[in-house]
Amino acid sequence: MSIPNFTTELFRAIGVGVALFDAEDESLIYSNPAFAKLFPDAISGVALTSLTEELDQTAVDRALAGETLEIAVKVKRRRVTLQIDVRNASHLERPVLVVECQNISRLRETEAMIDSYASMTERRTRELEREKVQVEKLLLNVMPRSVYEEYKSFGTVTPRLFEPVSVLMLDFVGFTEMAVASDPTETVSELNDLFTAFDRIAELHGCERIKTIGDCYMAVSGLPHSNPDHARLAARCASGFLRYLSHRNKTHRHRWQARIGIASGSVVGSVVGTQKYIYDVFGPAVNCASRLQSQSAPMEITVLEKSAESFGDEFQLGNHRVEDLPGFGKCAITSLELPDAGLVSVA
User: Fold this and answer.
1) Phi then psi for 256, rounded to 5 degrees?
2) What is the pTM of this model?
3) Nearest Cα to Cα of residue 247 among 151, 324, 343
4) CB neighbours of 189 closer than 8 A, spacing ≥ 6?
5) pLDDT of residue 342
6) Nearest-5° angle of CA 312, CA 197, CA 295?
């Protein structure tokens, strides 16, 4: 069957491989150069199903039903992916099959690259999200959440005056000697257990841990949100610390004893540093709590006597005395006796 010249020229001009097959015996009638390049063995009279193993009669029937085929063929030692469409048509009242064939290897390679890039981007996004969560956890360990939110939003933290608040300062008796005599790993593990328990107790009583320096633990009640009951909460927190230590000492090899000082007043809070961030508080209450802590006996909570009324009726006072506190002069101080309540749970 001859093909008009204008049709032949049109088939030559397009980049898609086009071939005509007899609809009855599926023998090749005509193919343009693009088709012949993809199927070098496609000579006149060759059967459609003999072009490649993947293009069997079942595949041809599926294509005639409207399905677009994708098959792999070898072209000049290189495997390529072809998209094939087969349609019924007629020429001079003779039924023919029109086969369109297009090399989509680069398209599939591009799609694979896009999928790979999308997968890599998704994986990297998950990693960044995990890193963001870790950074947030680390920052929340060194500053209150409200301060973190301000820093995240504006990149800086405005120094704020908080008053009144109560500052709790704690350190351990004989820590230096124990640290020198013990294995460093064991010492750090012990401090980690203690400070983790202290953090839970502080949170239970509405106190905010500000920092630890060696064996020194500092927490503040009434910051960042003001609380008129700040002194009582700080006292309950300190009581919880000592009760926890007393309970722990019954079952552990190391016997930890702590000295605690509590002072109320004003402090200034802000983030210090530009490369290594730390949230810190400064002011008279911090200095006074430090001085009171140094005056405490082991397992004693020391406060200014003039502040005693702030701690409520649940605490008894004892060991009244006058001490010279550096920076504050002669001060009347006293001790808070632990209430008879049960042990504070830190589970």
Assistant:
1) -95, 130
2) 0.63
3) 343
4) none
5) 40
6) 55
